[in-house]
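Hi W.,

Here's what went into the run:
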Amino acid sequence: MHEDKSTHQKKTGGMPTVRGRIWIDGPEGTFFGHGRAVLLERIIEHGSITKAAKSMDMAYRHAWDLVDSMNRQSKEPFVEVATGGKGGGGARVTKAGERAIKMFWRFHKDLQAFLTREQKKFKL
Amino acid sequence: MHEDKSTHQKKTGGMPTVRGRIWIDGPEGTFFGHGRAVLLERIIEHGSITKAAKSMDMAYRHAWDLVDSMNRQSKEPFVEVATGGKGGGGARVTKAGERAIKMFWRFHKDLQAFLTREQKKFKL
DNA sequence: AAGCGTTATTCCCTTCGGTATATTACGCTA
DNA sequence: TAGCGTAATATACCGAAGGGAATAACGCTT
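Here's what came out:
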């Protein structure tokens, strides 16, 4: 689901390319962005922070920090977590989290369209 | 000249804010962006890389790297440099460099407009 | 009560971007 | 030729960010 939303690409090879990124700032700084959207999708897919982190080759520590940051900054949490219990626990993305994902991809898509429009204006 | 073109702000305090940045990629990666535009303006203002770097509290090394990167990636250099000579030398921004500055600020302005449009769509 | 797998937390290590410092090269001026 | 202020380059250092590993906490299951 969602193959190439990458915003960071090292080289372009040919002509100079207009590029950009978009994100949402909250009370503590970064609140939502590309990496966090992907992380939430992986949590939905795997049902746990541990597996989500592994699946995207991210340290659990980092993933947990991101989840914690989102939950702290949002009125309603994006991820609900269960420690202990059946299977040791798990993590679940809330409705609010799903809305955030959808909204961000919409923003992201708008940005891509904007960038291709700007690219046409490129003239050194 | 050009007071608040900063794209990086740590906190927003109030509501979540849609933010973003834009830059130009070239053969070696980043080719032009906010910091480089400001640097060129300072070089114009001061006539040397040393003074330009000092004026924006940037290490000379870093400033030189940026200038070198731009000159390597552009067909025609953005900065012409004189080592030794009257006053020890100096640096001068070329016409191509000035065009790049102008174009970037135009992109930057477009982006700001885009971001405020997106902000209006923000709904968690 | 023991076992299980996950969340939660701590500590240390490495990596890396940028800084600071020092030295050399340069070419006009006097 | 000596002096000057800059460009150019090399080296060492610092701090922040991220990673890895280890451990504790948790609560269902058996």
